[in-house]
Amino acid sequence: MNVVAHGIDLVETARVAEVHQRHGRRFLDRVFTPGEQAYCLDRKRMYEHLAARFAAKEAVLKALGTGWRDGIAWTDVEVVNSPAGAPSVRLAGQCARLAAERGLSEILISITHTEAHAMASAIALGGQTKG
């Protein structure tokens, strides 16, 4: 595999909390999949987890080189966790189609968060290794 692209994003946790408090379920349903909501809302520091997933979605779109356009939905990017807790990305809809068009085989992510900020990095892989 070759590294094709990289994306990174930083989100203020308080901003995600503010938007959620203002728009409630509508915000959650628009931005997060049911699986992401179940994971985050069950956490002690749910806003940190929501902010981290928000940052991951932004980082993935930067790695795809698209931004939020051409019919992309927030829920086209889903952050899932392995049983050990490692995050990974599941693409759907328009994002999955764009990744296939660009020859991307996998997107690796790393996320971190504190009370104040959440950050995510996404590395898009594609093609074959030489040798």
Task: List the keywords.
131 residues; Ribosomal Protein L22, Chain A; 3-stranded antiparallel sheet; 5 helices; 41% helix; 31% strand; globular
Would you give an account of this structure?
The protein has one domain: 4'-phosphopantetheinyl transferase domain (Ribosomal Protein L22, Chain A). It is 41% helix and 31% strand. It contains five helices and five strands, in the order E-H-H-H-H-E-E-H-E-E. The chain has a three-stranded antiparallel sheet with strand order 1-5-4. Strand 4 and strand 5 form a beta hairpin. Helix 1 packs across helix 4 and helix 3 packs antiparallel against helix 4. The N and C termini lie close together (11 Å).
**Major sheet attributes:** 3 strands, antiparallel
Total discrete domains: 1
Please give the number of β-strands: 5
Give the overall form: globular
How far is the N terminus from the C terminus?
11 Å
Q: What is the H level of CATH, i.e. the homologous superfamily?
A: 4'-phosphopantetheinyl transferase domain
From the structure provided, what is the oligomeric state, counting identical versus distinct chains? single chain
**How much strand content do the residues show?**
25-35%
Strand order of the largest sheet: 1-5-4
The CATH class is: Alpha Beta
What is the percent of helical residues? Answer: 40-55%
